[in-house]
Design a protein that fits this description.
Elements (H helix, E strand, L loop, with lengths): L3 H58 L3 E3 L5 E3 L1 H7 L5 E6 L4 E4 L1 H4 L3 H12 L5 E7 L6 E8 L7 E9 L1 H49 L18 H49 L6 H32 L7 E4 H19 L2 E5 L6 E4 L1 H17 L6 E9 L2 E8 L20 H5 L10 H11 L3 E7 L3 E9 L8
Parallel strand pairs: 9-11
Antiparallel strand pairs: 1-2, 3-4, 3-7, 5-6, 6-7, 8-10, 11-12, 12-14, 13-14
Helix pairs in contact: 1-5, 6-7, 7-11, 8-9, 9-11
Bound molecules: adenosine-5'-diphosphate and magnesium ion.
Length: 485
């Protein structure tokens, strides 16, 4: 079974069914043996009672046997009538083994069966004996006792009292059929109850699963599971998970701190380096190869400064200490500014840049520096990944309370398998990596774009067809979100 709940229910019902069955079995056996004991006691006392009656009557009136019409010895009639009151099978034999009396139950048997009883009663005896026999042919099974008669005159041999064992089995058998009826009912009830109990017990587990699932990335690590008041196993599980998340959060924070500190510490030496190299480059009469080396070095320093800046931006964003300085600006202005930079780049690589802005101003409260960075990143990417002769088209628009800015190119495109990764930090497509020389970059640009868009309450989407081109679309709400900075 797939769920813990199903397994718990099965175990619970199985255990309960076994317990019930064992209980029924023990009760049945116990009742059966008690019934047999009762039966034994009954026939014992019937035999003793009969012996008592015979002895008493003998003392009162002497001989108790007379001859019947066929000259066979029988019990005198009023004594026989008295003994008729004794239930079950009662047989009295004479000393010579012949039958003196048979109760009405015994008289209802066949001749052969009565003979069987008589011979049991006339077997050589010492005191008493007992046993169980089946009366042949196919008669009832009988439990019997035989008492040797004393003190009732010389004619008497023995008394046999017996009873059908079915009477003893009837009670326990009824019990068994009752159980057969009750057991399935009990089992069904156990299944219902088991499933109810396990659902209740596991509801907390389901809640924990849902809560943990909502903690998707480093940014939601501050969240904690609701800890139940009861410190049972689940309470402790929630507590343990929370402790784990505290540790995770701490190490995440330490990691971010480290990146932020490291990038921050690198900034100053880089600035000094840059200033030094820039000064050196202006020295007159430098040999040609020294000049080339210095220019290369300056290029690398610029790249590294950009990288460090990007790292610092992202680390601060992660720490939540990169506030936006929102001010209402006309986005058309920013787009025009970026266009100028973009056109310079595009000219170098033989790419045409087209810009379409609406005639009316689009004023939104944004952090202008960040938005400029966002648009410039997209535009440089578009130019960088478009072969000469291609076109890059920037379009600004506004609809339904949202502002959209799209940057479309006719470049190399992005493979569908790569699309989910392009906003990851340091991720670059293989085609971009292999030609690092012409297409420099560290793979942080789009990660920063995504952060900027989201920090403004917006989003960034991408559509791309390899070899045909790529379109990035940034959507921003016109009204800044009410909450947070
Ligand atoms: N307009 C585009 N056309 C094709 N590929 C692109 C485009 N923009 C981004 N990419 C891919 O996404 C990767 C990540 O972009 P980005 O984060 O800006 O890093 P970088 O520009 O430093 O390589 C790039 O390396 C490139 O493979
Ligand atoms: Mg880039």
């Amino acid at each position: 079974m797939q769920t813990l709940r199903g397994r718990l229910t099965a175990w619970y019902s199985g255990a309960l069914a076994l317990t019930l069955a064992a209980f029924a079995g023990v009760l049945y056996l116990d009742r059966r043996s008690a019934s047999y004991q009762d039966l034994d006691q009954r026939i014992q006392s019937e035999a003793s009672l009969t012996a008592g009656i015979l002895a008493e009557s003998y003392r009162a009136r002497g001989t108790l046997v007379r001859a019947d019409t066929a000259q066979r010895p029988v019990l005198i009639p009023d004594l026989a009538a008295l003994l008729e009151a004794v239930p079950d099978f009662l047989v009295i034999t004479a000393r010579d083994g012949s039958l003196l009396f048979a109760s009405s139950d015994a008289r209802a048997l066949t001749f052969q069966q009565v003979e069987q009883l008589r011979s049991l009663a006339s077997a050589p005896l010492s005191g008493r004996s007992s046993g169980t026999v089946r009366l042949e042919p196919n008669g009832p099974k009988i439990h019997y006792v035989v008492h040797y008669v004393t003190g009732a005159g010389p004619e008497f041999g023995a008394i046999l009292a017996g009873a059908d064992v079915r009477t003893a089995e009837l009670g326990p058998d009824e019990l068994l059929s009752t159980f057969a009826l009750v057991l399935p009912l009990g089992l069904a009830l156990a299944l219902l109850m088991g499933s109810w109990i396990s659902r209740r017990a596991l509801a907390a587990v389901d809640r924990i699963i849902t809560e943990v699932r909502e903690i998707t990335d480093g940014r939601s690590l501050h969240r904690r599971l609701a800890e139940p008041l009861m410190k049972d196993e689940l309470g402790r599980l929630a507590e343990t998970l929370n402790q784990m998340m505290t540790r995770l959060e701490r190490s995440f924070a330490a990691l971010r701190r480290f990146t932020a500190d490291a990038s921050h510490e690198l900034k100053t030496p880089l600035t000094v380096l840059r200033a030094g190299v820039e000064r050196a480059i202006t020295t007159p009469n430098l040999p040609q190869d020294t000049l080339a080396t210095l220019e290369e070095t300056l290029q690398e320093i610029k790249r590294m400064t950009e990288l460090v800046d990007a790292l610092l931006t992202l680390a601060r964003a992660d720490e939540g200490i990169a506030p936006l300085h929102r001010e209402p600006v006309d986005l058309r202005g920013i787009v025009e500014e970026v266009r100028e930079t973009g056109e310079l780049l595009a000219e170098e690589s033989g790419v045409r840049v087209e810009v379409a802005t609406p005639p009316e101003p689009i004023v939104v409260a944004v952090d202008a520096t960040r938005i400029r960075q966002l648009i410039l990143n997209l535009l440089t990417n578009a130019v960088k990944y478009t072969p000469p002769g291609g076109t890059v088209r920037m379009q600004l628009g506004s609809a339904n309370g949202r502002v959209t800015l799209s940057v479309a190119d006719t470049g190399i495109g992005i493979a569908p398998g790569d699309l989910p990764h392009i906003f990851d930090r340091f991720w670059r497509a293989d085609s971009a990596r292999t030609r690092t020389g012409e297409r420099s970059g560290a793979g942080l640009g789009l990660a920063i774009c995504k952060w900027i868009a989201e920090a403004h309450g917006g989003r960034i989407d991408v559509v791309s067809r390899p070899g045909r081109g790529t379109t990035f679309t940034v959507t921003l709400p016109r009204e800044p979100p009410v909450t947070k900075t």
